[in-house]
Amino acid sequence: MTKKPPRLNLLATVDLPVLEASGVAVRRVDGDVRVLAVGDRTWHIVAGEFDGDDGINEWQTLDLSGLADWQLGAGDSQLEAVAVDGGSFIALMREDPPVVLLADTTNGELLSKITLVAPPDSELNERWDDPSSRGEGLVLLRGGRLLVAKEKRPRALIEFAPIGSRSLGLAQHDFLGPNERWDAPVGEVEFVATAVWKLRDAAKSALGDISALAVGSGRGLWFLSDKSRCVARLSLDRPLSPGGGAIRTFDEVWRLPKGTKKPEGIAALASNRVLVAMDTDLTQANGMIVGRPES
Length: 295
Hints:
This protein is mostly beta strands. The chain contains one helix and 21 strands.
């Protein structure tokens, strides 16, 4: 009988002031940790300050509908993920259509609309057509690239880059530093899938789907699975090949606390503090701060 993974400790329950929370991200500036969250229903982003222990306070709401050329209607944004750089960029990913909207909050403008495309020669061709199984997690990478988690059919990480780019693979040094800006495009552009790394073997068995991604404090990746109610960590001590391939094992796999409902977002707050957002109709107790059990 296969032994179940250990369970993460529930350190605190938090209120995320957004309905149907679907994505969270963290921006670190001068030692402060700022948490951003989005939901499926509206274009509003909420941002709060992590107190370094088990609380997120001083929430503010950023209404992006006032940006020039904003394209989302009210009530059904279908935002699946949020990612930030070390400057003023906020990237919002939709599943249908598969686009990333990049807002510059300093200049108050929609900087770019990036359509994610699987070219005919990609192994994702036709598998990217299902509007219910596209991007669920998003990370900004150095070199103006995007890392996207495909939820299912197949469960995979995908590198997207501007047309004509070659895959650079994925290593710890590909993640942006605390104050580093992303090399962003301007206007309406297409990014193509340049590499695909599918979950295989033990990694595939551990996660029934991929619901979100986060960069950890050790510059590895955290994966969240709604279906399996688990999180997994990939250290990237061995980089992923530019040619694509398989992710066969994780360095750690943990079960979420009992009673977790519809986990859809994940963000690493500190070395042993991870925020998990839950997709509920409430703005109370829809977030959890969890940590590894003491050894």
